[in-house]
Design a protein that fits this description.
Helices cover 34% and strands 21% of the residues. It is of the alpha+beta class. The protein is globular, with a radius of gyration of 17 Å.
């Protein structure tokens, strides 16, 4: 797993962990609830997942504007929080054209990350910030289609952690993979990647994008 430097993101993490404890209480998240909408993903990776408000969010909803995706989980949010904070900072630095670019957080731990937990997590970051969860098999398929690595590691005390890809994924207006942002990228490099996808012509996005499944995101 990648090392990361301590920074402002840890303030988000500490505040979130307190909110998480209050949110969870003694209840465990369960996908057996009849009130939950059904999640799904097709053979092209087009998903329907559940947002922090408990409603379905379709991947197709993001088409027409560039957007960013981060995979992670809230029980150990350090890496995800660091990445999201960097993306939010770069987005703000680029001004008005970038400030509406959504950051989408997809959990790799749906067993614990239900809508209420995601709501507590996403509130720690500037909008637009969207948290998504789903059934375990659907989440696994969504991650696989995005070339994202996620592996559960069980501990002797019955707890578990999840090793996962730390990079963020940049999608263009045509909802195609455009680039990856890594933890080691400098702030200037992150801003440059966001600027590039924002300035990419719609014609280029539709005709020249590289299909997601042909480009892997490195860890």
């Amino acid at each position: 797993m990648r090392r990361f430097r301590r920074g402002p993101a840890l303030a988000f993490t500490a505040a979130f962990m307190l909110a998480l404890a209050a949110t969870l209480g003694a209840a465990a998240w369960s996908w057996a609830s009849p009130d939950l909408p059904e999640t799904s993903v097709d053979d092209d990776g087009r998903y329907q997942l559940i947002g922090a408000d408990g409603k379905l969010v379709k991947r197709a909803n993001f088409k027409g504007q560039p957007y960013l995706v981060v995979f992670g989980y809230t029980a150990r949010p350090e890496i995800s929080s660091t990445m999201i904070a960097r993306l939010a900072k770069a987005r703000a630095a680029l001004g008005a054209p970038a400030r509406t670019m959504p950051i989408v957080f997809i959990t790799v731990d749906p067993e614990r990350d239900g809508p209420e937990v995601l709501a507590a997590f996403t509130r720690q970051f500037p909008a637009p910030m969207i948290g998504l969860t789903g059934s375990a098999d659907v989440i696994a398929s969504v991650a696989d289609h995005a070339a994202v690595f996620a592996r559960r590691q069980n501990n002797r005390d019955g707890s578990y952690t999840i090793e996962h890809t730390s990079s963020a994924i940049v999608y263009d207006r045509a909802d195609q993979f455009y680039d990856a942002i890594r933890l080691e990228d400098s702030p200037a490099r992150v801003e440059a990647k966001l600027r590039e996808v924002l300035l990419a012509p719609i014609e280029r996005a539709e005709a020249g994008a590289v299909p997601l499944l042909t480009r892997a995101v490195s860890r």
